[in-house]
Design brief:
Blueprint: E1 5-9, E2 15-20, E3 27-32, H1 34-43, E4 48-52, H2 57-66, E5 70-74, H3 76-79, H4 89-100, H5 113-144, H6 154-163, H7 165-171, H8 174-207, H9 209-214, H10 222-232, H11 241-247, E6 252-257, E7 260-266, H12 272-288, H13 294-302, H14 305-326
Parallel strand pairs: 1-4, 4-5
Antiparallel strand pairs: 1-2, 2-3, 6-7
Helix pairs in contact: 5-8, 5-10, 8-10, 10-12, 11-14, 12-14
InterPro entries: Transp_IS110-like_N, Transpos_IS110, Transposase_20
Protein name: Transposase
Domain Transposase IS110-like N-terminal: 7-145
């Protein structure tokens, strides 16, 4: 008997499901509540349930797998071309079902609860870092309006503010000085919250063998290792390290016609946060590491710095996939052998 494929359009309260009964050929497009979806799938024989990889999709994937079904998560960009006429829940469910039938359609690996929690910690930390940067920049601007200039850099600038508080108090009106002192305390609280989140992230990294293996790659620290492992999920979801690099937007953008393909800048697809971490890690290797590696040193002789950084980030991502997919440990001078 053929397996039934369901196209499920999820939301907060309204859920639309499209499928074709394999025995009768009947086309069904029904609306459910959240509990009705769970009860319906719990009563059905094992099948394939296709979802759009959107908000709460990974929770639904884990729930549906627990009910005995196979889950296929699809990127919204791959579903949109199959939406016919006006966009509604019913047409979206049918488009998801249609996209899942296409041969070679790429899917997203469902994440575990721990992986989602780790990525949530990263998002919280990223927002706090952004807020701290805004607060420090505002502090610099307000003091500059009263003729007070500070050293470059967040740490050096804040240290100078604390050292010169008595001098600043004489220059700045009292009403503003009290507010500036409160802002300094607020920045300190943000620093404490960031450090607390980083400790939680490092704790997860220490208990995950995959994170420990990836962290041995030069340029990848606890933040990048945990974010990368949590984002990749199941390494089997990618056919190769090149496919992972393309997923992260670290490959050239292609534009071709008439049999001629032109390569541009990087595509910048996928998760910009992971791409930023990898590129910053690559820059750290280029400018901080004592042993940059023969490959990157030779590349830096003939290519611009930014190109080398992105190329090294691409290599780091591909190396990380290889370690995870083949359960290997990192070797400094490892040379891949081509199959004869």
């Amino acid at each position: 008997m053929n397996t039934t494929t369901f196209g499920l359009d999820i939301a907060k309260r309204a859920f639309q499901m499209y499928w074709v009964e394999t025995e009768t050929g009947e086309i069904v497009n029904r609306r459910f509540t959240k509990q009705q979806v769970i009860e319906f799938l719990g009563q059905r024989p094992a099948g394939r349930v296709a979802l759009e990889a959107c908000g709460s999709a990974h929770w639904w994937a884990r729930k549906i797998v627990a009910l005995g079904h196979e889950v296929v998560l699809l990127h919204a960009r791959f579903i949109r071309p199959f939406v016919q006429n006006n966009k509604t829940d019913a047409t979206d469910a049918r488009a998801i079902w249609t996209a899942a039938q296409q041969p070679g359609m790429r899917s997203v690996a469902p994440k575990t609860a721990d992986q989602q929690a780790t990525l949530a910690l990263h998002r919280m930390r990223s927002l706090l870092v952004k807020s701290r940067t805004m607060q420090v920049n505002q502090l610099r601007g307000l003091l500059y309006e009263f003729g007070v200039t500070l050293k470059a850099g967040r740490v050096a600038g804040l240290a100078e503010v604390r050292e010169r508080l008595h001098e600043i108090e004489e220059v700045v009106p009292g009403t503003l000085f009290d507010a500036l002192r409160d802002q300094l305390q607020h920045i300190e609280r943000i620093d404490g919250e960031i450090r607390k989140l980083e400790r939680q992230i490092v704790a997860w990294q220490r208990q995950e063998a995959a994170c420990q293996r990836v962290a041995t790659i030069p340029g990848i620290g606890p933040l990048t290792a945990t974010a990368l492992v949590a984002t990749i999920g199941d390494p089997a979801a990618f056919k190769s390290g090149r496919e992972l690099a393309a997923y992260l937007g670290l490959v050239p953008r292609q534009s071709g016609t008439g049999g001629k393909v032109r390569l541009g800048g990087i595509s910048k697809r996928g998760d910009s946060y992971i791409r930023m971490l990898l590129i910053h890690g690559a820059r750290a290797v280029m400018f901080k590491s004592r042993s940059k590696g023969a490959w990157s040193e030779q590349l830096s002789l003939r290519r611009p710095t930014n190109v080398v950084a992105v190329a090294l980030a691409n290599k780091m991502a591909r190396t990380a996939w290889s370690l995870l997919a083949h359960d290997k440990t990192y070797q400094t001078d490892y040379a891949a052998q081509r199959a004869s």
